[in-house]
Automatic annotation (TrEMBL), chain A:
This protein's name: TAF1A polymerase
Organism: Tyrannus savana
GO CC annotation terms, alphabetical: RNA polymerase I transcription regulator complex
Annotated signal sequence range: none
GO biological process, one term: transcription by RNA polymerase I
Domain of life: Eukaryota
InterPro entries assigned to the protein according to its UniProt record, in alphabetical order: SL1/TIF-IB_Component (IPR052669), TAF1A (IPR039495)
UniProtKB/TrEMBL annotation, chain B:
Coiled-coil region: none
Keyword Membrane found: no
An MF annotation (GO) of this entry: RNA polymerase I core promoter sequence-specific DNA binding
Primary subcellular site in the record, as a coarse category: nucleus
Protein's cellular compartments: Nucleus, Nucleolus
GO cellular component terms, semicolon-separated: RNA polymerase I core factor complex; RNA polymerase transcription factor SL1 complex
Sequence ranges assigned to domain Rrn7/TAF1B C-terminal cyclin in this UniProt record: 258-454
UniProt-listed GO biological process terms: nucleolar large rRNA transcription by RNA polymerase I
Residue ranges annotated for the RRN7-type domain, each copy included: 2-33
Gene of this entry: Taf1b
UniProt organism field: Tyrannus savana
Keywords: DNA-binding, Metal-binding, Nucleus, Transcription, Transcription regulation, Zinc, Zinc-finger
Name the UniProt record assigns to this protein: TATA box-binding protein-associated factor RNA polymerase I subunit B
C-alpha cells in the first residue's frame, strides 16, 4: 500500500542520522553523542545494499566525536577503535591505519608501533590481497617509526661519543643497526610505488647517507625525481639538489637538478641559488637561463621585497650593461613585463615605502628600474634623490651609473 | 525406546540411533534398516496427544523449547495488550469477555481453512471445538488450541508440522525453519485465504473490542498509546515465556519494524468484523464518547478554540445527519454505507465550522481578527467591569497555537529519530547466525554505554504518563493564552432570530468527489493548492490525531458535500443542461 509516510526502522534511522550530522556540523558534541547512541542499533540490521553502511558511519562519526568531545580521552578512543576493527573486515586495515595516525598525533609512539606490528601480521583469506595497498602503507609507517627509533639510537651514540663510554655503545649500536635494517626494507618498498613519499624518501636517504651508501641514495633520489610514473613533485628535485650539494657535486649536476624545479615552481626559494650558479657559468646559454630564472621569480608577489633576489637581478643586469653585450636578453625578458612591472614593482608609492623600510632593497630596485625604465622613471628618481640627499655614497654612484647608461634604456624599450 | 526387537547379529536389545535415523545395535554396531517413524527425536510424537489435553505439556530437557503454534503467540500478544488497556482504565470486560470471544470466534472461523485438511475432517474439527467450549475454565488457554489442531493424529499435517520444527533434520535452506511449529506453513499460505493474523491485526482486534464496548478511546488515541509504549506492540515477543523459542520465519511474523498506520488497522478491523460475521455493533448514541458532539468538545478544548464553537459543530452534525445512531453504528459486512472514523470525522466537523465562520481564505479571517482586536481594545474597561468574555481573535489564537504546535512537533520529530527498535532479547534467524547476532548486540550495547556517557546528563526521559490530551490550555494563565472562554460575538449576527455567521461565503475543497474505491481517497490534498490557514488547521489536527492531513481533508470534503448537497446538485444539473 502507498503508506510512504509510515514510520519504520529505516526511516527512523535516516532521521536519526540527519539529526546526528546536524549536531556534528554545529560542533554540538554532546548532542551528537546522544544521537549516536540511538543510531548504533542500525548495526543490527542488514544494510549490505547501501554504498555507505552504518558501520562505516559509526566509525567515522564516532571518531570525530571522540576527537572533539571534552570528556573523551585516549583510553576511550582506543577502546572504541578496537571495536571498530571488529566491525568490518573489509575495512580492517584502514581502521588500523587511522587509529595509528591518531596515536601518533597524540604522541603515543609506542602504542602506534604496537598497533602497526599487529596489523602487519593480519591475514584474512582473500581480503589480505584486496587490502594490499593498506598493508603497504602500514609497513611503510612502521618503517618510518623504525627510522625514528634508529634516529634516537644514533643520537644516543653521538652523545656518548662525547663521553667515551665504550660498553653501553655496543648494544645501542646493535639496536641502531637493527632498526636500520627493518626501516630500510619497508621504506624501500613503499617508494617503489608511484606516489608522493617525501617523508619516507627523506628518512631513507638520511639513513643511507649515514652508512655511506651514496650510490643507493643517489639512485633513489633520481628515481623519485625523474621517473615519469611518479607525479610531478617539486620536493623531489629539492631533495636531490640538496643531496648533490652535500656530496659536493659539480655545478653542472647541481644546475641540472634545479632545471625542472624552475619549470614546475618558478617562484621556489632555491631560484636564487639557481640564478647565482647560472650567472657565474661560462656557458652563454646558462647565463641566459639565469636571467630568465630571476626575472620569473620576481614575477611573484612573494618576492617583491626580497633583497637577495633583487640584488641578483641587479648584478646581472649591471654586468650586461657594462659589458654592452647581450642587451637583447634584457629586451626579451622585459618585453612581456614592461606593461605591468612598473606598476607592480616601481610605483612611486613603493619607492617611498621601500626607501623608508629597507634602504638596501630600494637601492637594488632603483638600479634595475633605472636601467629598465630610464633615469626619469618615478622609482629611480625618488630613491636616488633621497639617497643623495642622505648623502649615502653608493646612491651617488648609482645615479652616475644610470645616467651614464641611459641610452641603454632607450634601446631596450624600443 | 519403543524398539524391542532383538538384534539379528548379537541378540541383544540395546539400540541406538544413527544420525541417519536408523537403529543400530550398540553391542555389535549392526545397523538396521529400521528407522523411526516420526522423524524428530526432540519433540513429542503424535502418540502423546492425550496427555496434552490434560493440560500438561512435555518440556524438553535439552532446553530447545516446547512446541508452540503461531496463534498461541498472537494470543499472548493480545493478552498483553488487553492487560495494558485495562491498566489504562478500560473495563476488565474487554479482556475477559469481549476480546477473548472475538479471538475464539476468529480461531474457529479461520481454522477451517487454516490447515490443509480434507473436507471430511473439517467436521470433526468443529465438533471438537464445540465440545471443548466447556474448557473455558481451563487456566491455560494454549492447550485448548492444541486440541483444535492436534485432534487429527494422522495425515500430512502432522509430518509437515514436525518437519518444520525438526531442528536436527533442518535443511540449511531457511525456508522451512522456524521456532514455532507452523511458522513456515503460516507464511506459505495463499494470501487470499481467510484473514491471516498479523501484528497490526492485533490492534484491529483491540480496537474492535473497544468499539464494541464503546470505550472512550479513539483509534488514533489507541495508536498513539502504542507508539508511546503504553500498549505492547514492538518487541512484544520479549514477554513470551522462555520455552517459546522464536527464530527463523517467526521473526517475519512477530517482529515488526514499522508503526501501524491508521488506515491499515481500521480497514483490517472492518474486514475482521465481516469475517467473524458479527452482528450490528452496540449503538453509538449521542451520550457516547465517540459521538461527534462529544468528540468535538474534546478536540475543541485541545485545539484551544472557544467553547461557543460547540453549538456550531452540533448544528452541522445535525444538519447532515452524521449524529444519527444508524449512521454512526458499525454494521459489519454492509458494503453500501461509508464506514465512520469517529476521530477524523469530529476533527473534520470542526474544520468545516471554522471555514463557515472564518472562511479561511488567508484574508477574511485576518480582517475579522483585526476587527475583534479593535473591539477588545475598546472594551477593555468594560470587560473589567462585567468580566465579559473577550472577543475571539484569530490572529492571537493562531500565534499561540502555532507556537505550541511547532514546539510539540519538533519534540515529536526528535522522538521519532531517537526511537529504539531493538530490545534486549536478540533474535536470530537460525542457530548459525546466533553468535553473530549476540556479538553485534553486545557491541551495540557497549557503544550505547560509551557514547551515552558522553551525552552529558541527558538521560532518556522516562515514558511520559499516558494522557488523553496532548495540548492543554489553562484558563488560569494570565497571559491570555487560553481561548476556551472567548466569545464569537464579533463574527456572528442575528437573522430572523437565528445566529448566523457574518461570513457570507464558503469555498469548497473540491467540487467533485473521487471514487474512493478506485483511487483510495475522496479528494487529493496538496498543500500548495489550499490557503495557508486551512493548511494550518489541518496540520493541527493531523498532529493531534497522528495522521496525514489528507485523511482529514477527505472527511472535510465528504461533510461539505453533504452540507451543500442541494446547491451542488443544482449546479451539476445546470451544467449538464447547458451541455445539451
Amino acid at each position: 500500500s502507498s503508506h510512504e509516510h509510515k514510520l519504520n526502522f529505516k526511516k527512523s534511522k535516516e532521521a536519526c542520522l540527519s539529526y546526528l550530522q546536524d549536531a556534528m556540523l554545529q560542533k554540538q558534541w554532546k548532542r551528537a553523542a546522544e544521537f549516536l547512541t540511538f543510531y548504533v542499533e542500525s548495526l543490527e540490521k542488514d544494510y549490505s545494499r547501501e554504498p555507505v553502511g552504518p558501520s562505516e558511519m559509526i566509525w567515522r562519526i564516532g571518531t570525530e566525536i571522540l576527537c572533539h568531545h571534552s570528556r573523551s580521552n585516549m583510553k576511550e578512543f582506543n577502546c572504541f577503535m578496537e571495536q571498530m576493527k571488529t566491525l568490518g573486515v573489509k575495512r580492517y586495515l584502514k581502521v588500523c591505519l587511522e587509529h595509528v595516525f591518531h596515536l601518533l598525533c597524540n604522541g603515543q609512539i609506542d602504542e602506534a608501533y604496537q598497533n602497526l606490528s599487529l596489523a602487519e601480521s593480519w591475514r584474512f583469506g582473500e581480503q589480505t590481497a584486496i587490502q594490499d595497498k593498506e598493508m603497504k602503507l602500514i609497513q611503510a609507517y612502521r618503517g618510518l617509526l623504525d627510522y625514528y627509533n634508529w634516529s634516537k639510537q644514533k643520537n644516543i651514540l653521538l652523545e656518548h661519543g662525547k663521553c667515551a663510554d665504550g660498553f653501553a655503545d655496543l648494544s645501542v649500536e646493535q639496536e641502531m643497526h637493527s632498526c636500520f635494517r627493518k626501516a630500510a626494507v619497508n621504506l624501500k618498498e613503499i617508494i617503489k610505488i608511484p606516489g608522493v613519499w617525501d617523508l619516507f624518501v627523506k628518512c631513507y636517504v638520511d639513513m643511507l647517507e649515514f652508512y655511506g651508501d651514496h650510490n643507493e641514495a643517489c639512485q633513489v633520489l633520481n628515481e623519485y625525481a625523474y621517473n615519469s610514473k611518479f607525479p610531478a613533485n617539486p620536493n623531489a628535485h629539492v631533495y636531490l639538489y640538496q643531496f648533490l650539494k652535500r656530496q659536493g657535486e659539480s655545478k653542472k649536476s647541481l644546475i641540472s637538478a634545479l632545471k625542472i624545479l624552475h619549470d614546475i615552481v618558478p617562484s621556489h626559494e632555491l631560484m636564487i641559488d639557481f640564478n647565482t650558479m647560472l650567472q657565474k657559468s661560462k656557458k652563454r646559454k646558462k647565463r641566459r637561463l639565469g636571467l630568465e630564472v630571476i626575472f620569473a621569480a620576481l614575477d611573484y608577489a612573494g618576492w617583491k621585497e626580497n633583497v637577495k633576489a633583487w640584488s641578483c637581478l641587479a648584478r646581472q643586469v649591471k654586468q650586461i650593461v657594462i659589458a654592452e653585450k647581450h642587451l637583447d636578453w634584457i629586451k626579451q625578458e622585459w618585453s612581456s613585463r614592461k606593461d605591468w612591472w612598473p606598476a607592480f614593482h616601481f610605483s612611486r608609492y613603493l619607492a617611498k615605502r621601500n626607501w623608508q623600510e629597507n634602504k638596501s632593497l630600494s637601492y637594488e630596485k632603483a638600479l634595475v628600474a633605472g636601467i629598465l625604465l630610464g633615469k626619469d622613471c618615478k622609482y629611480f628618481k625618488y630613491v636616488s634623490h633621497q639617497g643623495c640627499k642622505a648623502q649615502v655614497k653608493k646612491f651617488r654612484m648609482l645615479k652616475k651609473f644610470v645616467n651614464r647608461h641611459n641610452p641603454v634604456y632607450l634601446r631596450i624599450s624600443g | 525406546r519403543d524398539f524391542n526387537e532383538r538384534c539379528a547379529q548379537c541378540s541383544e536389545v540395546n539400540w541406538g540411533l544413527t544420525d541417519g535415523g536408523r537403529y543400530y545395535c550398540r553391542s555389535c554396531h549392526n545397523v538396521t534398516e529400521r528407522t523411526r517413524e516420526v522423524v524428530n527425536t526432540d519433540f513429542m510424537t503424535n502418540s502423546r496427544v492425550q496427555t496434552i489435553s490434560k493440560g500438561s505439556r512435555k518440556q524438553e530437557k535439552d532446553g530447545i523449547g516446547c512446541e508452540w503454534y503461531v496463534c498461541e503467540g498472537f494470543q499472548l500478544v493480545l493478552k498483553k495488550q488487553a492487560e495494558a488497556l485495562e491498566a489504562l482504565g478500560v473495563c476488565p470486560q474487554m479482556k475477559d469477555e469481549v476480546l477473548y470471544n472475538f479471538w475464539r470466534c476468529y480461531l474457529q472461523k479461520s481454522k477451517q481453512a487454516y490447515c490443509n485438511r480434507p473436507a471430511g475432517e473439517t467436521v470433526k474439527a468443529l465438533s471438537v471445538c464445540e465440545s471443548s467450549t466447556d474448557v473455558d475454565s481451563e487456566p491455560e488457554r494454549p492447550n485448548f488450541l492444541h486440541l483444535l489442531s492436534l485432534s487429527e493424529s494422522e495425515g500430512d499435517l502432522q509430518t509437515d508440522c514436525s518437519l518444520a520444527s525438526s531442528m536436527s533434520k533442518v535443511s540449511e535452506s531457511t525456508s522451512i525453519y522456524s521456532g514455532s511449529v507452523d511458522g513456515s506453513l503460516y507464511l506459505m499460505k495463499n494470501r487470499k485465504e481467510k484473514l491471516r493474523m498479523t501484528m497490526p491485526m492485533t490492534l484491529s482486534f483491540c480496537y474492535m473490542a473497544l468499539l464494541w464496548l464503546r470505550e472512550p478511546i479513539t483509534l488514533s488515541e489507541l495508536l498513539r498509546f502504542v507508539v508511546e509504549g503504553h500498549i505492547p506492540y514492538l518487541n512484544v515477543f520479549q514477554h513470551f515465556p522462555e520455552k517459546m523459542k522464536l527464530c527463523g520465519l517467526d521473526l517475519k511474523i512477530f517482529c515488526v519494524e514499522s508503526w501501524p498506520v491508521y488506515e491499515e488497522v481500521y480497514n483490517k478491523m472492518l474486514e475482521l468484523a465481516a469475517f467473524l460475521d458479527l452482528p450490528r455493533f452496540p449503538d453509538i448514541t449521542d451520550s457516547c464518547f465517540l459521538h461527534p458532539d462529544m468528540l468535538c468538545i474534546k478536540y475543541l478544548m485541545e485545539a484551544n478554540l472557544p467553547d461557543e464553537l460547540h453549538n456550531w459543530t452540533c448544528r452541522v452534525v445535525k444538519k447532515i445527519g452524521i449524529g444519527e445512531v444508524d449512521f454512526l453504528t458499525l454494521v459489519p459486512g454492509n458494503k453500501s454505507t461509508r464506514k465512520v472514523k469517529y476521530d477524523i470525522l469530529a476533527a473534520a466537523v470542526i474544520v468545516v465550522v471554522l471555514k463557515l465562520l472564518f472562511l479561511l481564505d488567508d484574508h477574511y479571517e485576518w480582517s475579522l481578527s483585526d476587527f475583534a482586536e479593535e473591539r477588545n481594545k475598546n472594551n477593555k474597561e468594560v470587560c473589567l467591569f462585567y468580566s465579559g468574555a473577550l472577543y475571539f481573535e484569530f490572529k492571537k489564537w493562531y500565534k499561540v497555537v502555532k507556537h505550541s504546535l511547532d514546539v510539540e512537533q519538533k519534540k515529536l520529530d526528535e522522538e521519532r529519530a531517537k526511537y529504539l527498535w531493538r530490545c534486549e532479547k536478540p533474535l536470530f534467524y537460525s542457530v548459525k547466525n546466533k553468535s553473530k547476532v549476540l556479538k553485534r548486540r553486545q557491541m551495540v550495547v557497549n557503544l550505547q554505554n560509551q557514547f551515552g556517557k558522553l551525552s552529558g546528563s541527558v538521560r532518556r526521559a522516562e515514558k511520559p504518563n499516558p494522557s488523553s490530551f496532548q495540548l492543554s490550555w489553562s484558563e488560569e494563565n494570565t497571559d491570555g493564552s487560553c481561548f476556551h472562554g472567548h466569545s464569537l460575538k464579533g463574527i456572528l449576527q442575528e437573522k430572523c432570530g437565528l445566529l448566523t455567521a457574518m461570513n457570507p461565503d464558503y469555498w469548497l475543497c473540491t467540487v467533485k468527489l473521487c471514487n474512493e474505491k478506485l483511487c483510495g481517497h475522496l479528494a487529493h490534498y496538496r498543500e500548495v493548492d489550499f490557503p495557508q490557514s486551512y493548511h494550518f488547521v489541518l496540520r493541527l489536527f493531523s498532529f493531534l490525531l497522528r495522521i496525514q492531513p489528507s485523511y482529514i481533508h477527505d472527511e472535510v470534503c465528504m461533510i461539505e458535500h453533504k452540507l451543500f448537497n442541494k446547491k451542488l446538485y443544482k449546479k451539476l444539473k445546470y451544467n449538464t443542461v447547458l451541455r445539451k
